[in-house]
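Recall that a protein's primary structure is simply its ordered list of amino acids. Everything else, from secondary elements to tertiary packing, is in principle encoded there. The following example makes that idea concrete.
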Amino acid sequence: MLYNLQKFTQDFIQFSPSELFKITYVFNLKYFSKGQIVFPAGQVVRQLYFLNKGVLKIYKYEGSEPEEVKFYLNPTFLTDLQSIQSNQVSLYTLITMSEVELYHADFNTIHSLMQQSAKHHTFFSSLFTDRYLFNVSI
């Protein structure tokens, strides 16, 4: 995770190795097979995800056809930020398109990290304003 995290974060901010380690410390690893659902529509999302390896697809259904389909390639962060912020169920389903190595952290833990460090606050605040990653509606 550390290599891909450094690769991803350098576009936003330069972290020291110890600052990167603080991010990795709050994440837990989970492996998924192709076709597994990470989170289904109808569930409140409470996790921030870091895709370390693989491909994910997020979509919602309006009628019989999937809409607002997006694909995520590693390395990247993703979640349904609207579900987290509103504490409402997600309209989206996140599914694996390949074998996936996915790290997850409770959003409240991320928020605590942001309060402890100005640099982490700057990074995550910048990250959460990225329309592609977190504002699923285009």
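The chain has a mean pLDDT of 91. The helical segments are 2-9, 17-25, 81-86, 107-116, 118-128, 131-134.
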